[in-house]
Specification:
CATH architecture of the largest domain: 3-Layer(aba) Sandwich
Distance between the termini: 24 Å
Number of strands: 16
Shape: globular
Bound molecules: glyoxylic acid, manganese (II) ion
CATH superfamily of the largest domain: Zn peptidases
Structural class: alpha+beta
Strand content: 15-25%
Helix content: 25-40%
């Protein structure tokens, strides 16, 4: 049976919820509903094994590429020309159970429901999970999808050293996911990713769906501040070269700059490590990260410049040396208007309440948009909480999002660009 234009395949919501719950058992954080599956860790391997088993059980063509991206397709030749969906199954160290996982398992559900309906598709469907989307262990974030689209060489990916001193290539080998499929990968016909919003906009407005028009720009920097380690009791304040004092001032400056610029500008210091990190020792070094984001590239550059100047001033006053390293830098991305419109029309047809919106978080879709028409669907995050084990999305919203994903992917198999 060929898919008549506009046909609907009903997804099995209970099966999707069961798979989400089963995957969430791997790396489960005790006493919470969250997960810890850092990229290329043992828990990541276990999660990968489970999802790959599900993919193989459906008889899909499953490939693992040289940076560990996994693509499962209904096409015998793999994902070339496929309508692709996907996301990631790695998490931050204190993650929730839906971030990324929803997009992958909803994609799998769409494929299972479509196969069960016996529909002959004009194009294959493919579902992918990309390596190391989170970037918390190894920068940059969206590493696997960046390599998939040719934005980072396999050689550079494999060499990346993590926050814990491990190397991507060695860890990938260790967990058995250094595959042989080519990277960059096959170019899909289109890519649509379902994801939880991870912010408060939909929940506050009581809306079911976000039609995502783009992703804000991301700038990650690591600063190493080096001063003079000394005795906490004997060193007069005026004679100190204290890198922690500068780190604190830089963190406040980042916050002030974001507040002054306003709009979508945000600034986060999410990691700060002192050496030697002892109660009675003025630290020798402070290593900190700064995450700046904005939907507008020019304003993001302004924030970066202001913070660079302010950091240099603060360090000079304290006599502290600064070295700076870019961990990730991605410009804002605008999704394909045709795919955005398609999602909006299908959501309207299904009577879903929605709004168009940008994404505050980074996503694999922003990389895929470099090689094919791309957009995203958001479902609400309760209280806007994410990157937190308490992350939650109501079951009916998860299912509504997955059904809209099904409608969108099937419609896109009929579209020619
Ligand atoms: C990735 O999840 C990010 O937005 O930090
Ligand atoms: Mn995510
Ligand atoms: Mn995330």
């Amino acid at each position: 049976m060929r898919l008549p234009y506009g046909a609907v395949v009903s997804i099995d919501g209970a099966r999707l919820l069961d798979r989400l719950a089963e995957l969430a058992q791997i790396g489960a954080i005790e006493g919470t509903q969250g997960c810890s599956r850092l990229a290329f860790s043992d828990a990541d391997r276990e999660g990968r094994d489970l999802v790959v088993t599900w993919m193989r059980d459906l008889g899909l063509t499953v490939t693992v590429d040289t940076v560990g991206n996994v693509v499962a397709s209904t096409g015998g030749d793999g994902a070339t020309g496929a309508v692709m969906t996907g996301s990631h199954i790695d998490t931050v160290g204190t993650g929730g159970r839906y971030d990324g996982n929803l997009g992958v398992l909803a994609g799998l559900e769409v494929i299972e429901a479509t196969l069960a309906a016996g529909i002959e598709l004009q194009r294959p469907l493919a579902v992918a999970f990309f390596s190391n989307e989170e970037g918390s262990r190894y920068p940059p974030d969206m590493m696997g999808s960046l390599a998939y689209v040719g934005g980072m060489s396999v050689e550079s990916v494999l060499k990346v050293e993590g926050a814990d001193g491990t190397i991507v290539g060695e860890e990938l080998e260790r967990i058995g996911y250094r595959g042989s499929a080519p990277c960059p990968g096959a170019i899909p016909h289109a890519y649509v990713e379902l994801h939880i919003e991870q912010g408060p906009v939909l929940d506050r407005a009581g809306l079911q769906i976000g039609v995502v028009e783009g992703v804000q720009g991301i700038s990650w920097t690591e600063l190493v501040l080096t001063g003079q380690s000394n005795h906490a009791g004997t060193t007069p304040m005026a004679l100190r070269r204290d890198p922690m004092a500068v780190a604190a001032e830089v963190a406040v400056a980042a916050r002030d700059i974001a507040l002054e610029l306003g709009g979508s500008q945000v600034a986060t210091v999410g990691s700060l490590t002192l050496h030697p990190n002892l109660v009675n020792v003025v630290p020798a070094n402070a290593t900190m990260t700064i995450d700046l984001r904005n939907t507008d590239e020019k304003t993001l550059q302004l924030a970066e410049n202001q913070l660079r100047i302010r950091t240099a001033e603060l360090a000079e006053v304290e006599g502290v040396d600064v070295t700076s390293r870019a961990l990730a830098r991605f410009e804002p991305v605008e999704f394909d208007g045709r795919v955005v419109n398609q999602i909006e029309q299908l959501a309207t047809k299904s009577g879903l309440s929605m709004r168009r919106m940008p994404s505050g978080a980074g996503h694999d879709a922003q990389m895929l948009s470099r090689i094919c028409p791309t957009a995203m669907i958001f479902v609400p995050s309760v209280d806007g909480v994410s990157h937190n084990p308490a992350e939650h999305t109501e079951e009916q919203d998860l299912i509504a999002g997955a059904q809209l994903l099904a409608d969108t992917l099937l419609a896109l198999t009929e579209v020619t660009w």
